[in-house]
Specification:
Blueprint: E1 5-8, E2 11-14, H1 18-27, H2 58-64, E3 74-77, H3 81-86, E4 96-98, H4 109-120, E5 127-132, H5 133-139, H6 142-148, E6 154-159, H7 164-170, H8 187-190, E7 204-210, H9 213-225, E8 230-236, H10 244-264
Parallel strand pairs: 3-4, 3-5, 5-6, 6-8, 7-8
Antiparallel strand pairs: 1-2
């Protein structure tokens, strides 16, 4: 399936996408090939954590985060470590998950979160954004509109000091994967929080940096308690730490390319 056509072996059908094809295909599927799923529900394994180390790592983060997300929320995960991490997260009931994986481009979620928040306001649906530091630098100005339109979005920025996914693929020594460090949690202040001429605007809640698991859980409990406010939680994560799903994907891709090269020799 492609954006504007469907390809079956060597035949290309223009303007046919999966939304049109799959219903027709399943309707004509032989009944003897359709069987109900009788397997067990997928269980996400419990993380193995070092209790002596209180730093926030992906193994801990994605396991703990659902405890602070209410049912029927809207969650957006940015391309990169957030997207791979959330695939292994136990989502609360009724959650809508939004991401942009087709083109693999960064910067989608912050602006999309504003739209999702305005669209879900009548149903009292809260929006949680999970975005990396590099992606945020492309679209940070949307925070200004979030304040202006009085949203109660929860911005969770994963600060791993650069483009970690690219560092894992190409190596940590590539200078272009390092970025200018910002005071991300000061975004509300920079974009006019508290200025009289900007009233009315969002009521701001937590806006700070968390470096330990205890600090993260305390901040997120404030998020849970203050549902009428907009929050900014800047989470400090070790630079080369990554979700297992991302590490496995990169290792699998490297192995595939290695075998492909060997086959060409």
């Amino acid at each position: 399936f492609h954006t504007y056509h469907t390809k079956v072996f060597y035949a290309i059908y223009d303007k046919v996408d999966m939304r049109q094809l799959l219903p027709d295909l399943t309707e004509k599927w032989p009944a003897e090939l359709i069987r109900p799923y009788n397997g067990k529900p997928f269980e996400i394994p419990q993380p193995v954590l070092n209790d002596k180390n209180n730093e926030i790592v992906h193994e801990y983060f994605w396991h703990k985060l659902p405890d602070f997300i209410p049912e029927n929320s809207i969650i957006l995960a940015e391309t990169g470590t957030s997207e791979f991490g959330i695939f292994n997260m136990r989502a609360p009931r009724g959650v809508t998950f939004l991401t942009q994986i087709l083109w693999g481009s960064i910067g989608y979620t912050v602006g999309a979160a504003l739209g999702a928040s305005l669209a879900g306001k009548s149903d009292n649906r809260r929006v949680f954004v999970l975005v990396g530091d590099g992606s945020f630098q492309l679209v940070c100005q949307e925070v200004s509109s979030m304040l202006r339109f009085q949203t109660n979005i929860v911005l969770i920025l994963l600060n791993n000091d650069g483009y970690t996914i690219e560092k894992l693929i190409h190596g940590p020594e590539r200078a272009y994967n390092n970025i200018q460090m910002w005071r991300y949690h000061k975004s509300f202040e920079y974009f006019g929080d508290g200025l009289k001429q900007n009233c009315p605007q969002s009521i701001t809640g937590f806006a700070g940096q968390v470096k330990t698991r205890d600090e993260f859980e305390k901040a997120m409990q404030q998020v849970v308690n203050e549902t009428d406010k907009i929050h900014f939680v800047e989470v400090i994560i070790p630079s080369m730490d990554a979700p297992k799903s991302l590490v496995v994907t990169i290792e699998g891709t490297r192995e595939y390319k290695r075998r492909e090269r060997e086959g060409q020799e």
